[in-house]
Amino acid sequence: MTELASLLERHAPLLLGALLALVAVLLAAVLLLALRQRALLHRYRQLLGGPRGQELEDLLLEQARTLQRLEDRVRDLEQALERTVREGLAHVRHVGLVRYQAFPDVGGNLSFSLALLDGTATGAVVTSLWTRSECRLYAKPVVRGTSPQPLSAEEQEALAQALAEAGSPSPAQPLTPRRASR
Q1: How do residues 60-96 score in pLDDT, each as one tens digit?
Q2: What is the arrangement of strands in the sheet containing 123-130, beginning at the earlier edge strand?
Q3: Which residues on adjacent β-strands are paired with residue 27?
Q4: pTM, rounded to two decimals
Q5: Are strands 135-142 and 111-117 parallel, antiparallel or unpaired?
Q6: 93 by DSSP, 3-state: which?
Q7: Which of 75, 87, 115, 175 matches a 20 to 30 Å C-alpha distance to 159?
């Protein structure tokens, strides 16, 4: 034991210096940790004490309510779009036009046959026959791409143009809208 005491006595300044250095390093580490804790505490308070003092839970609940309102609005818009598409099937969407010279003594291709079809290939073929003294106008119905009345060659051509523009109609399925290419 005396040997240990004499060893400590001989190296006391060195041991004291090492202990002081160790204390200084530990003190620096404690100060660094205190600064980091203060920064984390500040960030934590900012997170929990959002605008006007709301808590994080209140913010999350408000976000959930906003998301629900947006989902409801999207659902309403989708339903409105479906209604608009259904209603749009009844509007004229496909047109075929053939101009021609109906009579040999009248030039200028002033006569015409015009096919006007909706989204279900239903509509009419309108024909105008122009002569020097008069103009006659005829309309024939079209149901699902065909007419119950006989059509002239020009009327058939106008109907074929409208159907080609729309695609082939199917009695069970309406014509699909053509999408613009990008």
Answers
A1: 889 999 999 999 999 999 999 999 888 877 888 899 9
A2: 94-100, 111-117, 123-130, 135-142
A3: none
A4: 0.51
A5: unpaired
A6: coil
A7: 87
